[in-house]
Automatic annotation (TrEMBL):
The gene is KIAA0895. It comes from the Eukaryota. This is Reverse transcriptase.
Length: 310
């Protein structure tokens, strides 16, 4: 390192952070470094195990917020001032972790956060208004108290924008290409638009992708979005098996027919006689798509013009 960079290592300040099993099994005591089990980088506590991120960051932050609220409780603050304190001091700290660490947080965690916030806002007295009223915008009579779970969802679901707008072959962002390749033969877009999955393990082993999808499922269940979307892609779609083995549907996508929604016009699926005007290969695909839409419960949403392929 010194020969290449021109710098010297300060052994007293340097720490060694073993990540893999092989590194942890190595006789680390023989190395002139302090062995660290975690380290802090840009405000995020990095641990050797993914499962420890929750305790090292979110649980730790919640404890600090609880201590801060206890210290602030002696101040003579109005209700509005206490809500503004939550907005300007507590929310940014949680939002930063929400955006930096893609980790699944259960509802019980946000119940603990709300409990700490409520105790601070009402100064350990019985709440005089429901939390939902305080969370309303000012125009609707509320105080715009932050909904921490909504901020958590927004911070993580923003990644889906990249999933939906990019194809694996066109991905210019390294992490996006890695995540797209980790779900093959299906696609990130198909997983986003599919019905609620009981498990994401059959489709990917990527912990980040699985966690993001789990958060997405949590969001969909909360808002009642549990069925498949008509914007699901025709190609590389695990809910439409022919698309996983037939490259024809990728050809349709290149021709401008990307999703099941593109198959419909005026709420009627194209008839076989009209579809027959195309080549046999497209007529065969039409039959597969017709069967697929019936299986998905989308038999009457619009019409496909196979002649668009020519």
């Amino acid at each position: 390192f010194r020969e290449i960079s021109g710098y010297k290592l300060n052994l007293n300040k340097s720490e060694l952070f073993p990540i893999s099993t092989a590194a942890r099994n190595y006789p680390l005591y023989s190395l002139p470094f302090k062995i660290a089990h975690h380290f802090t980088y840009l405000g995020v506590s990095v641990t050797s195990k993914f499962e420890d991120l929750l305790k090292a960051n979110f649980v730790s932050l919640l404890s600090k917020v609880r201590e801060d609220c206890e210290r602030w409780s002696i101040l003579n603050l109005s209700l509005t001032a206490r809500v503004n304190t939550v907005k300007m001091n507590i929310l940014p700290r949680f939002s930063y972790l929400f955006q930096c660490i893609p980790i699944f947080l259960p509802q019980s965690f946000f119940q603990k956060v709300d409990s700490v916030i409520s105790e601070f806002i009402w100064n350990k007295k019985v709440p005089r208004l429901r939390k939902q009223y305080l969370q309303r915008p000012r125009k609707l009579g509320g105080l715009a108290l932050p909904h921490f779970r909504f901020y958590y969802w927004a911070s993580n679901i923003r990644i889906l924008k990249y999933w939906l707008q990019s194809e694996p072959s066109d991905a210019q962002i390294n992490w996006l290409a890695i995540e797209a390749n980790s779900v093959k033969p299906t696609s990130l877009r198909a997983l986003v638009h599919s019905a609620i999955l009981s498990s994401t393990l059959p489709y990917t082993k990527n912990r980040i992708v699985r966690t993001t999808l789990r958060i997405w499922v949590q969001f969909k269940r909360y808002f009642g979005l549990q069925t498949s979307s008509t914007y699901a892609p025709l190609a590389a779609n695990h809910q439409f098996p022919p698309s996983l083995v037939d490259d024809l549907f990728s050809m349709w996508s290149k021709a401008g027919i990307h999703s099941f929604k593109d198959l419909y016009i005026d709420n009627v699926f194209e008839t076989k006689s009209n579809a027959g005007r195309g080549e046999y290969v497209f007529w065969r695909a039409w039959c597969q798509l017709k069967s697929g839409t019936l299986d998905r419960g989308m038999s009457r949403i619009g019409t496909l013009y196979v002649t668009r392929m020519h």
